[in-house]
Amino acid sequence: MEKYLENLNWRYATKRYDESKKLSEENLENLKEALRLSASSYGLQPYKILVIEDEEIRKKLRKEAWDQPQITEASQLLIFAAYTEFNQEHLDKFISNTAKTRRMEEKELEGYKNMIENTTLQLPKEQQQIWAAKQAYIALGNLLSAAATFRIDASPMEGFSAEGFDKILNLKEKGLTTAVIAAVGYRSMEDDYQHLAKVRKSKEELFTTI
To answer: Residue 111 maps to which CATH number?
Structure first.
């Protein structure tokens, strides 16, 4: 636990990356696995995560993100794209995967399936999109902790045009929309933010025990 807290103190929202340093295939796969294991409502994971490495695409995305350098300097850019609608097809696929993974018959999951049909599937489309985006943020939080554990720098980012990103990545046609993004890689020694003390509320101010 002490090491984990040390890693969280080490991490910060990196502003400038060393373009010469790239994640190894092993480290990238470790981050992917950590993201795959992220918690989500019912375990539905109503999002996709795009790993953007193509330089030309990243240049276009940077223009839609207030010209923030992390977009092109980082080793990879991760796009958390939430479903714009969670429908019966998504649920059926989830139930099928659950049955296969747990070596069950799908009929054994009918009660679980009905519960999701009567809750999540009944939400208005706009509410479903908000719900899906919230699940993507849970995965983002897991990414930040995992990256710190592996001593990989990461920058969660909301300063971008979702509409612009969606257009460049053709997400609307796939029933997706950009919820949040994160850059991952290794900090530049020229990034002065790494030397600043971490500012957080005190435990007394943050926590209330009832």
So the answer is: 3.40.109.10
